[in-house]
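User: My collaborator sent over this chain with a note saying "see what the structure looks like." That's all I know about it. Can you take a look?
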Amino acid sequence: MKQLSKHSTFIIALIIIAIAFFANSAFAQTKKAKVADSTKPFVLGVIDQLQSTILGEKRILNIYLPEGYNKNDTTKYPVVYLLDGSADEDFIHVVGLFQFNNFPWINRVPKSIIVGIANVDRRRDFTYPTHIESDNKKYPTVGHSDKFIAFLEKELQPFIERKYKTTDSKMLIGQSLAGLVATEILLKKPMLFNKYIIMSPSIWWDNGSMLNVPNTTLKDSLTLKTDVYIGVGKEGLTPTEAPRVMEVDVNLLVEKLHKVRNKNLKINFDYLPQEDHATITHQAVFNALRILYPVEKEKN
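Assistant: Without extra context I'll predict from the sequence alone. Here is the result:
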């Protein structure tokens, strides 16, 4: 048999290398495919829906059920109603704060059901009518917080209480315009919730007319213990034609609430100078949970 030429030997070597390369590549792809097949979704909560007659639309609810929740047992849980509760807004990180504070070695807050109310038109839902004509022209859908509040009271709360295992404890969390509507609820229908976390509320709306709402309901009709946390950062001027300062408005709101003489109402004010309007929510909610759920010191 004739010996192979050097050229033929070289070609055979190249063929062997190519076969080995493609075999390794195919093996690697198979291995990667097996790894991909082992993944599964990380589930943080459930998505529910509620058709609202009052609002004339379907509302999406992002709901976190605490560890150990079982619809078939007798354990019931407080409910936290989170405004700006869309998945790309405050739902994920607020749920994380509650879950963190539920760790057994922390145990600061009770395990709670969190209802994140996804937005459709927050300016429509979170504002009452304004006398500022430029705002009416710029934002033509504004001024329907009355319908949104009715939705919370007459549709959402009954829906959650029918479907999930809840106690009578209800918290409301809102920031900016959501803080404005939370303030409106506190002043006009305070019994809808017994805990409020209000952050950087847009008191500037309608030239601060919220500050002129009488304290009558809080003073005369509040019969349940109600704890309120109000936080604001170093936020400066508000987006208004007439100059207003966010911190000043919030301080005026706190002064107004402190004038209410009702033993059932407790106001907690928190100034966070290292935060601004964009960053305040996470730190303020953390602080609020520590303030609203104080750790009882053991008696000697």
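A starting point for your reply to your collaborator: The radius of gyration is 28 Å.
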